[in-house]
Amino acid sequence: MSKKNYKLEAKSLNAYYGNFHALKDINIAMEEKAVTAFIGPSGCGKSTFLRTLNRMNDYIDGFRVEGEILLDNRDIYGKDVRVDELRKEVGMVFQKPNPFPKTIFENVVYGLRIQGIKDKRVLAETAETSLRQTALWDEVKDKLDKSALALSGGQQQRLCIARALAISPSVILMDEPTSALDPISTAKIEELIYELKKDYTIVIVTHNMQQAGRVSDQTAFFYMGELVEFSKTKIMFTSPKHERTQNYITGRFG
Amino acid sequence: MTNSELNRLKDKAFQGFGIFCTLIGLVVLAIFLLNILIDGLGRIDWNFLNNLPSRRAERAGIYTAWIGTLWVLVLSSLIAFPLGISAGIYLEEYGKKNRLASFLEVNISNLAGVPSIIYGLLGLEIFARMMALGGSLLAGSLTLALLVLPIIIVTTRESIKAVPRSIRDASYALGASKWQTTWYQVLPASFGGILTGVILALSRAVGEAAPLIVIGALAYVPFAPSSPMDEFTVLPIQIFNWISRPQAAFATNAAAAIIILLFITFMLNGIAVYLRNKWQKKVKW
C-alpha cells in the first residue's frame, strides 16, 4: 500500500495496438479532487492512456495492456471488474461534442435509463441537478424536450458533461474537450472544470499549453509513448526538469 | 476553328449524348406503361379483383393471385426481417474483423447476385421436399425470404456503418453494454435506412415468378389460401399464365394484372422513399 491514498494510479503500464508499443512503462499517481493535464505532441500516447482509464480501448481489435491501473487501490483490469460498473465510476467527455440525436432531457438521463431507473421524479431531479452543475439549466430549462442537436457547440459540450455527471462518477476524463469550440465556449468549459474539481477527480488531455497551465494542478508530459515528466503544473511550466519538456512547452516542437 | 471552340463543341456534344442516354430508358418504360394502361385499364373493376380464376377470360379474376401475393409478402417479411437485421447487426457490431468476416462479407454480396431460379431449386430441395412443405405458401415464402436475405443483410450493415463512432463511444462511456448501445442508439439512428432496404428487397420479391414456379406454386388455384400450408399462386405467375394463352381476351387480363402488380410495387417503393426522407430529416449529425 502506498503511504498516500491516490485516486488513480498506473503501475508499470504497457499498452499495445497489435505490434505497436503505444505506452511504455507508465508509472503515475493522480490525487483525488485535483485536475491532471496530459500534454504532448500528437501520437505520444496521452489519449491512449486516457482511454485505458475507463477501458474505452477494450473494443479495439488487437489492443492489450500489461501492468496495473488502480482506481481507489483496485485494479480496473482485474478479472472481477465489470466494465459497465467501472464506467459509472469513471465518466468521459470527448473531443467533439457528441450528443445523442434525442431530446436534451433524454441525453442527460440516458445513463440512468440504461441502469433501468424509470422513476420520473428521480430522472427529472437528476436532469436538473446535472444541468445546473454545468450552468446549462437556465439556458435550456424551457426546451428540455427539444433536440439536443439544435444547441450550439459549446452548449452541446456542456450537455455532454452534464450527461456524464448524471450517473455520479467520481472521476471525469476529458479528451481535448475544447478543441472544437470557440474561445468563449472554451472559457466556460474551463470555468466549469474549476468548479467541478471540488467534487470530482479530473483528467484532461489538451493540446493547448495555456489551457493546461490555467486549469490543472498537475501536468504529465508524454513523448513517444513514454511519460517524460510529471509534476505540479506550476513547477513544470516554470522549471521543467527535462529539456524535451521545456522545448515542447515553449513551442519549439510539437 | 480554335481549340477552345472545339472544346466547347465537345462539351455540348457530350451533354446531348448524356440526355439521350438518360431518356432512352425512361422513354421505353413510358411506352411500355402506356401500352399496358391502354390494354388493361378498362378491364380493372371490382369483379376483376374479386373473381376466382376461370377458363373464360371475361369471368376470370385475380382474387387468388393478389391474396397469394399479399400472403407471400407478409410471410417472407416476417421471416427475412428479423433474420436479416440480426445477421447484419452481428456482422457489423459484434463480429471480429478477421479473415472469416471478410470471407462471409464477400459471399453475402455474391449471394445477392445469384439468379432467383437457383433459389427456387434450393427451396424445392430443402423446403418443398426435405421439410415436406410441398408447393405451400410457407415453402414459397421461405424461398423468397432466402432470396432477399442477402440484400437485407447488406443494407442493414450499410445503414449501421453510417452511424458515427462517436455516438457509440458516448453510449459506452456512460456504462451501456454493446446490446444497449445497439438497441437504444445504433438501431434507432439507422432504422430508416434499414427499413428502406427491406421494403425495396420485398418489392423485388413481389415480382418474382421463377423460384415459385420451381417449388411448385400453381397457376390455377381454385380458392384463396387461408393458411400458410395452403397451395397458392401469385400475380407474376398468373400474368405469365395468361400471357401464354392464345386468346386476345387473356392478354387484356394479363395487362390488367400487370397494372395491379405495378401498383403494388410502386406503393412499396413510395413507402420506402417516404420513410427515408422522414428519417433523414430527423437524424442529422
TrEMBL record, chain A:
One of its GO terms (molecular function) is phosphate transmembrane transporter activity. Residues 8-249 form the ABC transporter domain. SUPFAM superfamilies: P-loop containing nucleoside triphosphate hydrolases. Keywords: ATP-binding, Cell membrane, Membrane, Nucleotide-binding, Phosphate transport, Translocase, Transport. GO terms for biological process: phosphate ion transmembrane transport. GO terms for cellular component: plasma membrane. It is found in: Cell inner membrane. It is a peripheral membrane protein. InterPro entries: AAA+_ATPase, ABC_transporter-like_ATP-bd, ABC_transporter-like_CS, P-loop_NTPase, PstB-like. PANTHER family: ABC TRANSPORTER I FAMILY MEMBER 17 (PTHR43423). Part of the ABC transporter complex PstSACB involved in phosphate import. Responsible for energy coupling to the transport system. This is Phosphate ABC transporter ATP-binding protein. It comes from Pontibacter burrus. The lineage of its organism: Bacteria, Pseudomonadati, Bacteroidota, Cytophagia, Cytophagales.
Automatic annotation (TrEMBL), chain B:
InterPro entries: MetI-like, MetI-like_sf, Phosphate_PstA. This is Phosphate transport system permease protein PstA. Belongs to the binding-protein-dependent transport system permease family. CysTW subfamily. The chain crosses the membrane at residues 17-41, 62-91, 111-128, 135-155, 182-202, 209-228, 248-275. NCBIfam families: 3a0107s02c. PROSITE patterns: ABC_TM1 (PS50928). Its main location: membrane. Residues 66-272 form the ABC transmembrane type-1 domain. GO terms for cellular component: plasma membrane. The keyword RNA-binding does not apply. One of its GO terms (biological process) is phosphate ion transmembrane transport.
